[in-house]
């Protein structure tokens, strides 16, 4: 895999999360110096006339920022769940994701 400067970047791990009209990709890649970083990509499918195209937004997250990023993300999610929407049932989405993953696995067998 090449980056925008033409350097090869080996993909070490990849996780795909389907979320309605969006898909998120969490990819761990290696650098030329044998270090690692995470890319988080949001991909949205768009209709262009008779064909589809994909709009992508990407975040590069480096190891020195992992801890701060995860803490801030957890704090923001907890604020929504506990302070802004305390009565909302977020577990319904966890069950939905488990069912979708099981269906995907069955489809590939």
Care to describe what's here?
- This protein is of the alpha+beta class and 109 residues long.
- The chain has one domain (11-108): Roll (Nuclear Transport Factor 2, Chain: A), CATH 3.10.450.700.
- It contains two helices and four strands, in the order ββββαα.
- The protein has helices spanning 66-84, 91-108, and strands at residues 11-19, 22-30, 36-48, 51-62.
- Strands 1-2-3-4 form a four-stranded antiparallel beta sheet, with no helix packed on it.
- β2 (22-30) and β3 form a beta hairpin.
- The longest helix is centred in the last third of the chain and has 19 residues, at 66-84.
- The model has no long low-confidence stretch (mean pLDDT 84).
What is the strand and helix layout of this fold?
Blueprint: E1 11-19, E2 22-30, E3 36-48, E4 51-62, H1 66-84, H2 91-108
What is the annotated CATH architecture? Answer: Roll
Give the low-confidence spans. none
Task: List the secondary-structure elements in sequence, H or E.
Answer: EEEEHH
Number of domains: 1
Radius of gyration, in angstroms, nearest whole number: 17 Å
- The gross shape turns out to be flat
Highest-level CATH class:
Alpha Beta
The tally of strands reads: 4
Biggest pleated sheet: 4 strands, antiparallel
N→C terminal distance: 28 Å
State the helix count.
2
Strand content: 35-45%
Averaged pLDDT, please?
84
Helix content: 25-40%
Give me the secondary-structure category: alpha+beta
